[in-house]
């Protein structure tokens, strides 16, 4: 975003701040992210070596969780996101996080 005037700086900095408050990206554990990515990459490489026609064996499972399963993904995301869940799609942010934004759709008189 270009900032040519003082008004640009005032408006755009406030807009960026309010946007980040609404999005509220969760803090992540970078060490866990690296570990999870390395483990998943090594599993992907290992599974590429198994012929597609051969059934997968126990070494392609961890604690009863198949590589790439939803439970495995949930487990990894909880480790990366420090056991905090991000706001779900459609879930409204807290009213004190809205800043200068105003909700205009759906479920409002303006929609």
Structural description of this entry:
The protein has 111 residues and is mostly helical. It is built from 3 helices and 2 strands, in the order H-H-E-E-H. It has helices at residues 6-23, 30-48, 70-80, and strands at 61-62, 65-66. The protein has a two-stranded antiparallel ribbon. Strand 1 and strand 2 (65-66) form a beta hairpin. The radius of gyration is 22 Å and the shape is elongated. The protein starts with 5 loop residues before the first helix and ends in a 31-residue tail after the last helix. The mean pLDDT is 79.
What is shown here, in short?
The protein is about 45% helix and about 5% strand.
Radius of gyration, in Å, reads 22 Å
- Portion of residues in helices? 40-55%
Distance between the termini: 30 Å
Q: State the low-pLDDT regions, or none.
A: none
The general outline is elongated
Number of strands: 2
Reported for the largest beta sheet, the result is: 2 strands, antiparallel
Sheet-strand content, in percent, reads: under 5%
Report the oligomer.
single chain
SSE ordering: HHEEH
What class, by secondary structure content? mainly alpha
The helix count comes to 3
Mean pLDDT across every amino acid position:
79
Side-by-side strand order of the widest sheet: 1-2
